[in-house]
């Protein structure tokens, strides 16, 4: 019994000891949590019930090389709500709806969501923000955000780019330097429970963002304004598909100006077609450069001593390579001439011979050194590489044609970089657009120096090429690029446009001029490229060279480059005149404007338009008239009124006919065509055999998958309507 009593006491002692030990552990753990880990755990608990909403920082400013602000920020208010703090969602939605153009029902749904934060509308107009503030609605808040602002509107728009609603850079410099420009995000902090419900006296704080770094560019606003002015004049005069002007310092590769058409306003980019802002033609557009590329052929031949300045050449008007005849732009050719005159006259057969003398291996060596076929590395997104035939697949015919600037595609920035290398003595520079990155206190964080890529040419070869290009401007095809008081060098180019399916498209050209000045101390190089000018003129000598002269003249004066006294002006402007021949005016009535003007160009005729529209309703002279080539046909684009002559005509059966056949047939009958679709006529709105007044518009639907042989009926249509001609390609200066 005594033994059992002792055993019980022993167990009780152990139990007390274990309980005491457990209590000590719990007390120690509590003390650890309460006194040592309290800060960490309290922070974690706070994080669980706090929601952080990022607020975009003000992006850094962008300055031109003279310190003028070209991109900055404006303050704007954005609207958000804390749903559990909204006292009367219905009334709140009703009051806000007309101010922010959001339906009250949608607003009510967003105001009653089980969240602690809800953006309602970003970047409000100032007047709208003031009206919302005046309402003093519970749970409705305005936060100041930064909105990107472009004070010069569409000036250099593709180069600067723009930002999205969260101030993220989307294109241009805004995109490529997004990390530097962004700055440090701010935040809105709101306290909630696990289900997003209101807590007693919740935390609601705003931590302002910190502005990003600033950029200083190589671009000069004044020179850019010269470029924008000339681009506007190009659009007004020629209405081209694309136009590009780039101005560079050839000694450093610094871009002084870069402009494109069509353009857009970055302040309002959402209301502009994506096709306009999505790509920068100055660095993206691949095109066959035509005769401007002959500067590369010339410099390579001189560098390799494949030709001397006084080497004799003979141009009969063509040259045969393999099984192909390559024509000179001048009918009958240039006859006997020396190499300097081959360059001055932009003689195609002469350049073919020069290219073949250089040979495949050496020609490709210079293509590679000049940087064709690879991006230049300019600090802008979306740069194209150009297109070069692989060396192992190139034939002698390819070399001959590439010597003329055909069968090779370049970008405007590539070609100007190559011309600048010739100007500065043979050094290829990487094109530079940003000079330095600074913080808000104007401390330089990064400074970009001009970056030479390689010595492309010996200085002697570059100087000889420059002297030949100066003669092009003084005595040759580039006379319209002459700038009084300065020695100017350069080269014109006119090349046909390559179609999407391959092959050249008749009537569509790219006119260009690339050059530099002064020859003795080059300060400015520039390229003017006009793709598919309208209205008749399309030669680089007439479309692009005068624009080059205007931009370079104003730039040299602005930079205070001293003039060279006693320079002789070219005797007369260069005008390319085709031999006038009698031609028959084709019918273009009822044709879409683009197809009608193409048909006129194929017939060596110019045109002028009256009114606005996309369909040709009348022409003067009428179809069948005999006129001299180069005559301007006046095209009436105004839709005919109902007050036509009351003469009745019978509507023909159009099913199965091609567009050209329908257009010509209706035109002969005094009827007008409006159409939809492509291919063969499938349906007409007025049935065949109906009597209608002269001048009635017939709407015809065309389908591409229609089997013509199933629908074609015996229609009395002259066979001449089915003839299509393809004009042989001839490269012009």
What does this structure look like?
The termini are far apart. This protein is α+β, with helices and mostly antiparallel strands and 733 residues long. It is built from 22 helices and 33 strands. The radius of gyration is 36 Å and the shape is globular. Strands 2, 3, 4, 5, 10, 18 and 19 form a seven-stranded mixed beta sheet that branches. The chain has a five-stranded antiparallel beta sheet with strand order 12-11-23-22-21, with helices on both faces. The chain has four domains: 121 residues, Penicillin-binding protein 2a (Domain 2) (Alpha-Beta Complex), CATH 3.90.1310; 338 residues, DD-peptidase/beta-lactamase superfamily (Beta-lactamase, 3-Layer(aba) Sandwich), CATH 3.40.710.10; 59 residues, Trypsin Inhibitor V, Chain A; 87 residues, Trypsin Inhibitor V, Chain A (2-Layer Sandwich), CATH 3.30.10.20.
Key terms:
alpha+beta, disordered C terminus, Trypsin Inhibitor V, Chain A, 22 helices, Penicillin-binding protein 2a (Domain 2), single chain, five-stranded antiparallel sheet
Put the structure in a nutshell:
This protein is of the alpha+beta class and 733 residues long. The protein has four domains: 52-63 and 70-149 and 183-211, Alpha-Beta Complex (Penicillin-binding protein 2a (Domain 2)); 221-558, Beta-lactamase (3-Layer(aba) Sandwich), CATH 3.40.710.10; 579-637, Trypsin Inhibitor V, Chain A (2-Layer Sandwich); 640-726, Trypsin Inhibitor V, Chain A, CATH 3.30.10.20. Strands 2, 3, 4, 5, 10, 18 and 19 form a seven-stranded mixed beta sheet that branches.
């Amino acid at each position: 019994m005594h033994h059992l009593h002792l055993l019980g006491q022993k167990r009780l002692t152990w139990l007390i000891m274990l309980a005491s030990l457990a209590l000590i552990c719990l007390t120690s753990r509590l003390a650890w949590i309460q006194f040592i880990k309290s800060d960490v755990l309290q922070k974690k608990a706070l994080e669980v019930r706090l929601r952080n909403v990022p607020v975009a920082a003000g992006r850094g400013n962008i300055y031109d090389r003279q310190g003028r602000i070209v991109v900055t920020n404006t303050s704007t208010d954005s609207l958000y709500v804390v749903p559990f703090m909204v006292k009367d969602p219905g009334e709140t939605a009703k009051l806000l709806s007309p101010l922010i153009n959001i339906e009250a029902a949608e607003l009510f749904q967003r105001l009653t969501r089980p969240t602690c934060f809800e953006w309602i509308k970003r970047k409000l107009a100032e007047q709208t923000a003031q009206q919302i503030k005046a309402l003093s609605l519970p749970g409705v808040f305005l936060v100041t955000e930064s909105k990107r602002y472009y004070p010069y509107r569409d000036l250099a728009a593709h180069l600067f780019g723009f930002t999205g609603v969260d101030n993220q850079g989307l294109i241009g410099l805004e995109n490529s330097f997004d990390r530097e420009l962004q700055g440090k995000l701010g935040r809105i902090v709101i306290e909630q429970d696990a289900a997003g419900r209101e807590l007693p006296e919740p935390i609601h704080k705003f931590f302002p963002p910190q502005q990003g770094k600033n950029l200083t560019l190589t671009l000069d606003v004044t020179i850019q304004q010269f470029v924008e002015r000339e681009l506007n004049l190009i659009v007004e005069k020629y209405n081209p598909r694309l136009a590009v002007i780039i101005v560079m310092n050839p000694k450093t590769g610094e871009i002084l100006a870069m402009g494109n058409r069509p353009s857009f306003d970055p302040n309002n980019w959402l209301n502009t077609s994506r096709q306009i802002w999505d790509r920068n033609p100055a660095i993206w557009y691949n095109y066959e450069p035509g005769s401007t590329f002959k500067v590369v052929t010339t410099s390579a031949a001189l560098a390799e001593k494949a030709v001397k300045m006084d080497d004799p050449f003979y141009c009969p008007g063509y040259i045969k390579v393999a099984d192909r005849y390559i024509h000179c732009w001048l009918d009958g050719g240039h006859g006997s001439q020396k190499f300097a005159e081959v360059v001055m006259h932009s003689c195609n057969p002469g350049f073919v011979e020069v290219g073949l003398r250089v040979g495949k291996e050496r020609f490709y060596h210079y293509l590679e050194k000049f940087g064709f076929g690879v991006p230049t590395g300019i600090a802008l997104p979306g740069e194209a590489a150009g297109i070069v035939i692989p060396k192992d697949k190139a034939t002698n015919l390819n070399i001959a044609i590439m010597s003329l600037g055909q069968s090779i595609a370049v970008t405007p920035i590539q070609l100007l970089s190559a011309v600048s290398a010739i100007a500065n003595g043979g050094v290829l520079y990487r094109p530079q657009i940003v000079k330095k990155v600074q913080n808000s206190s104007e401390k330089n964080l990064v400074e970009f120096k001009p970056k030479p890529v390689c010595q492309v040419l010996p200085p002697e070869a570059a100087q000889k090429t420059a002297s030949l290009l100066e003669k092009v401007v003084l005595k040759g095809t580039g006379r319209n690029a002459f700038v009084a008081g300065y020695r100017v060098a350069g080269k014109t180019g006119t090349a046909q446009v390559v179609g999407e399916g391959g092959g050249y498209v008749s009537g569509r050209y790219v006119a260009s001029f690339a050059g530099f000045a002064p020859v003795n101390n080059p300060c400015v190089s520039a390229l003017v490229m006009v793709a598919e000018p309208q209205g008749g003129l399309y030669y680089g000598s007439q479309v692009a060279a005068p624009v080059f002269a205007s931009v370079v003249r104003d730039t040299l004066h602005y930079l205070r480059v001293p003039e060279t006294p006693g320079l002789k002006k070219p005797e007369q402007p260069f005008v390319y005149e085709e031999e006038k021949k009698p031609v028959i005016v084709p019918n273009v009535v009822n044709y879409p404007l683009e197809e009608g003007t193409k048909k006129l160009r194929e017939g060596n005729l110019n045109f002028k338009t009256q009114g606005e529209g996309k369909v040709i309703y009348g022409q003067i002279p009428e179809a069948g008239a005999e006129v001299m080539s180069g005559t301007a046909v006046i095209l009436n684009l105004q839709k005919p009124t109902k007050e036509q002559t009351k003469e009745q005509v019978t509507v023909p059966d159009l099913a199965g006919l091609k567009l050209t056949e329908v257009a010509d047939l209706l035109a002969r009958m005094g009827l007008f065509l409006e159409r939809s679709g492509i291919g063969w006529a499938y349906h007409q709105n007025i049935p065949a055999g109906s009597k209608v007044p002269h001048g009635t518009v017939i709407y015809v639907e065309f389908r591409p998958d229609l089997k013509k042989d199933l629908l074609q009926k015996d229609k009395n249509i002259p066979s001449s309507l089915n003839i299509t001609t393809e004009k042989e390609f001839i490269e012009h200066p």
